[in-house]
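Q: I have 95 residues here and want to know how they pack in 3D. Can you give me a structure?
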Amino acid sequence: MRRICWTSLARQDYYDNIDYLLMEWSEQTAQNFIDAADHVEQLLKRGNVEFEKTDMPGVYRCVICSQVSLFYRLLEFDTVELLRFWNNYQKPSDL
């Protein structure tokens, strides 16, 4: 089982997305996002899947929902670092 560590930016992005969903959508929509993020985290912990490689060396992208992607990297064989929960409508150059 791999270890998951979150950067401060990933944690902030995650909570910002939840706050936005609660303000603009519904508790159920926010819960769906939380569940989807938890599911991906469990997949990464098990280590039986890798997602899409990006142009950034060693960085992978996983779509959490149509609006949000998770960017992560493997630090060691047994550690995954969550880098950002990125809103897909933002400019990629800002990433």
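Q: Anything worth noting?
A: Residues 27-46 form the longest helix (20 residues). The domain at 3-89 is CATH 3.30.2310.20 (YaeB-like fold).
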